[in-house]
Structure formats: structure tokens, C-alpha cells
């Protein structure tokens, strides 16, 4: 991934959107040595929200959390498996927002956020940022759509990711200062920011990725975060295919 604190700004995005081939997400998950390092990092994560910030979160319908969909005309959307890691991330952020309500959890959350941002280019933060940008890059806009509208749509998606990560970083600092109001505000703001990213995803795709996540979690009988061949048998053929593609792409 090419993202860094210097690149991930609105002005940086605008400077890189003069042509579609120059978008930062175009190079976000290239199949090179750097990508393999990301995949290796991703395999360390356990399926589900507990893996990221250490709190269980009661599963709820994702659509209830999002806003209105994008009005830009799209010919085809990315595949469901490309959305699944971001859905896991969303559940983790939802769990985090609940977890920080108890001050006893603050040291745990601070430690987890330190790890989330640690590693520079190989950080988990850059992994999820990159997955979100790659999803954006894979949107096939309608040929008749005006270029300015496409750029505006991409800008909105990029800004939502940027706000999510910025609020998480601010949350980490507020936790270090034990700033109760800041902790509550930044946790909620990160949740709202990521919800605004999902607001630009088709509702049917959100329902589909939710269904995939729920059934994969049910299939993982030994709770090791991996789906064995025997466990795979409890999924529908469509779910099996989606999950295999997801694992192939992201680990």
C-alpha cells in the first residue's frame, strides 16, 4: 500500500484524481511483495469483531446504521467478498464504541489501537484503508455518468475512510490522556464516519455480506477463525464460493 499520513489527505486525493489510472486506490492492493506482507498480517486476525478490539458486539442489522445511498450511476459494483473485510471492521468499530463506555476497558482499547497503527506501511490501519480504497477503485461507473460526479463520489468515499482513521487516532491520544469526553466523542465519530462509507454501498450488498458473515461465524464450530473443509459443508454453494474468494484475496 502507498498510503501514509502524508498521502492520506483530501488535497492529496484531489491531486491524484486527475485521471482514473492515477487514483491512490489503483495501487492499493497490487499483487506484489508488499501485498503478500499485508495478507500475512491479515491472516493473524480472527474472523469477527472480537479479533480487532477485544469486545464482543451483539450482531445487528447493518442497514439500520447507514444513511442514504449514493446517487451516482454505477454499472457494476465490486463483489461481496471484497466488502467482507470492511464489514468485519465495521463490527469492530461498533464494538469499540460500546467498549469505551466502561473506563475499565480503556487500557485494553489503547493497547489495541497502538497495535492497529503500529507498523507504518504494514499497519492494520493501512490494510483496512487499502481494502476500502480498492473497493472504491473496483466500482464500475456508468459510461454516461459525468466525470465530475464520479470524482465527487470517490472523494466522499475517500473522506469517509480518512475521517474514520483520523478519529481512531484521536481516540488513541484521548485514551492516553484519559480524556473521558474526548474518548466518548472520538469513538462515536469513528463509528459515524465508517457508517457514512457504508452509506455509499448498495443495501442489498450490505445484507449479502451480513448474511455471509453470520453464516461463516456459525460454521466455525471450533471458533478458531478458520473454516475447515468439514465446516465449509454447512454453507450454501454460493456462500462457499464467496468465502473461498475472500480468503484467497485477504487471507
**Beta-strand share of residues:** under 5%
**Biggest sheet: strands, sense, closure?**
2 strands, antiparallel
How far is it from the N-terminal to the C-terminal residue, by CA? 16 Å
Low-confidence stretches: 1-51, 56-69
The protein's oligomeric status is: single chain
Order of helices and strands: HHHEHHHEHHHHH
Key terms for this structure?
251 residues, mainly alpha, single chain, two-stranded antiparallel ribbon
Give a verbal description of the structure.
- The protein has 251 residues and is an all-alpha fold.
- Helices cover 60% and strands 2% of the residues.
- It is built from eleven helices and two strands; from the N terminus they run H-H-H-E-H-H-H-E-H-H-H-H-H.
- The chain has helices at 10-15, 33-42, 50-53, 80-99, 106-117, 124-137, 147-177, 180-198, 203-219, 229-232, 237-250; strands at 74-76, 140-141.
- A two-stranded antiparallel sheet has the order 1-2.
- Helix 4 (80-99) runs antiparallel to helix 8 and helix 6 (124-137) runs antiparallel to helix 7.
- The longest helix is centred in the middle third of the chain and has 31 residues, at 147-177.
- The protein is globular, with a radius of gyration of 18 Å.
- Residues 1-51 and 56-69 have low confidence and may be disordered.
Amino acid at each position: 500500500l502507498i498510503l501514509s499520513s502524508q498521502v492520506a489527505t483530501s488535497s492529496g486525493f484531489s491531486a491524484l484524481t486527475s485521471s482514473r489510472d492515477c487514483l491512490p486506490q489503483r495501487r492499493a492492493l497490487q499483487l506484489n511483495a508488499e501485498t503478500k506482507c499485508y495478507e500475512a498480517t491479515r491472516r493473524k486476525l480472527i474472523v469477527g469483531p472480537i479479533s480487532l478490539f477485544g469486545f464482543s458486539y451483539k450482531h445487528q442489522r447493518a442497514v439500520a446504521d447507514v444513511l442514504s445511498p449514493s446517487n451516482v450511476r454505477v454499472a457494476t459494483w465490486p463483489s461481496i467478498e471484497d466488502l467482507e473485510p470492511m464489514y468485519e471492521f465495521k463490527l469492530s468499530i461498533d464494538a469499540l464504541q460500546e467498549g469505551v463506555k466502561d473506563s475499565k476497558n480503556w487500557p485494553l482499547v489503547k493497547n489495541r489501537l497502538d497495535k492497529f497503527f503500529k507498523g507504518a506501511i504494514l499497519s492494520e490501519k493501512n490494510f483496512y484503508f487499502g481494502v476500502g480504497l480498492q473497493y472504491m477503485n473496483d466500482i464500475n461507473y456508468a459510461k454516461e455518468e459525468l466525470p465530475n460526479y464520479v470524482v465527487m463520489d470517490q472523494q466522499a468515499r475517500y473522506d469517509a475512510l480518512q475521517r474514520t482513521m483520523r478519529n481512531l487516532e484521536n481516540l488513541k491520544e484521548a485514551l492516553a490522556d484519559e480524556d473521558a469526553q474526548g474518548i466518548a466523542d472520538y469513538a462515536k465519530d469513528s463509528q459515524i464516519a465508517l457508517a457514512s462509507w457504508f452509506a455509499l454501498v448498495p443495501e442489498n450488498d450490505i445484507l449479502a455480506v451480513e448474511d455471509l458473515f453470520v453464516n461463516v461465524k456459525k460454521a466455525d464450530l471450533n471458533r478458531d477463525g478458520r473454516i475447515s473443509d468439514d465446516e465449509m459443508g454447512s454453507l450454501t454453494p454460493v456462500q462457499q464460493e464467496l468465502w473461498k474468494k475472500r480468503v484467497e484475496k485477504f487471507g
